[in-house]
Amino acid sequence: MSKLLELGGLLEPLTAKIHNGTPTFGTCAGMILLASEVKGTRPDAHCVSALDITVRRNAFGRQVDSFETDLDFKGISQPVHAVFIRAPWVESVGDDTEVLARVPADDDKGAIVAVRSGHGRGNVLATSFHPEVTDDHRVHDYFVSMVEESMA
Ligand SMILES: NC(=O)CC[C@H](N)C(=O)O
């Protein structure tokens, strides 16, 4: 993903736009791109460093280890059904990064799978899972609220 952005001359303007405050939501590979540190990636991969997080690519295993589960998501009242497709997880977060969801604690040690910058005020959201493949729009609604707050 970062290679294509670089080849297309988009990496620099996209990075600048995100750092200038444009609300941004990354899912899965998008989370990896937004991270400040990435484990298990190519040495020449770039990241946008819009979130102070360390992520590990393919952390839950190979394509056949893709799975679905229900998650508690901070700011959304009922559990969210989450689809993980060869997903990354977040290994650590900086002081200014809010953890919004983890996989259930008995699975994969309760790994962090949703984060937001700036403790409820930041403009950058990322999930390890793919809310765009379900009919549940609540995570997208959460992002729309972030966009509205950024314009208030
Ligand atoms: N569904 C996805 O976006 C998968 C991401 C991919 N496994 C990666 O590490 O780049």
Secondary structure topology:
Layout (H helix, E strand, L loop, with lengths): L1 H6 L3 H9 L4 E4 L1 H6 L2 E3 L13 E4 L10 E5 L8 E5 L4 E5 L3 E6 L9 E6 L6 E4 L10 H14 L1
The structure holds glutamine.
What's a concise summary of this model?
The protein contains 4 helices and 9 strands; from the N terminus they run ααβαββββββββα. With 152 residues, the chain is of the alpha/beta class.
Task: Jot down its keywords.
152 residues, alpha/beta, Rossmann fold, four-stranded mixed beta sheet, three-stranded mixed beta sheet, 28% strand, globular, binds glutamine, glutaminase activity, PdxT/SNO, pyridoxal phosphate, glutamine amidotransferase, transferase
